[in-house]
């Protein structure tokens, strides 16, 4: 049987742990909420391009930005565009409409830098009457920076947890 003394100790330890975590988190202000909304818009616009045939993904990156997809790394405009060109070639046989869902999004803003962590799920609809299929699923960590009032990726780590194209096994890094 748990005594009142033990319950008080558990409550105190819990309070100290929560307080320590809250002390580490940046203060939430109106400015950080606006920045978080801007980062959410960045993610929606960026992921909205997938499957659209557009290829200017480097627009959303800092000039020296890095994209790491399953260990395949590209830096700067040319490196990032090469990764997306190769990705498009690997999925060239896919028919229908491709969409990406982002879930469990956590954005932390700290001045002119931020991080974003999420789970992503790629869906495909071959026709409007066919069932939706899950094509790929994974997680992502982004380091972002605010340049000239606009949020961009500084470094993105995209990692597949399932459905990865086997050609990426040679560079794949489980994270």
Structure description:
With 175 residues, the protein is of the alpha+beta class. It has a single domain, classed as Nuclear Transport Factor 2, Chain: A (Roll). It is 31% helix and 39% strand. The chain is built from three helices and six strands, in the order ααββαββββ. Strands 2-1-6-5-4-3 form a six-stranded mixed sheet. A hairpin with a 2-residue loop joins strand 3 and strand 4. About 3% of the residues have low confidence.
Number of strands: 6
How many structural units, i.e. domains? 1
Distance between the termini: 42 Å
- What structural class results from the helix and strand content? alpha+beta
- Measured by DSSP, the beta-strand proportion falls in 35-45%
Largest sheet: 6 strands, mixed
How would you describe the shape? globular
Percent of residues in helices comes to 25-40%
What is the rounded Rg? 20 Å
Low-confidence stretches: 15-20
**Could you say what the CATH architecture is?**
Roll
The H/E string reads: HHEEHEEEE
CATH C-level label: Alpha Beta
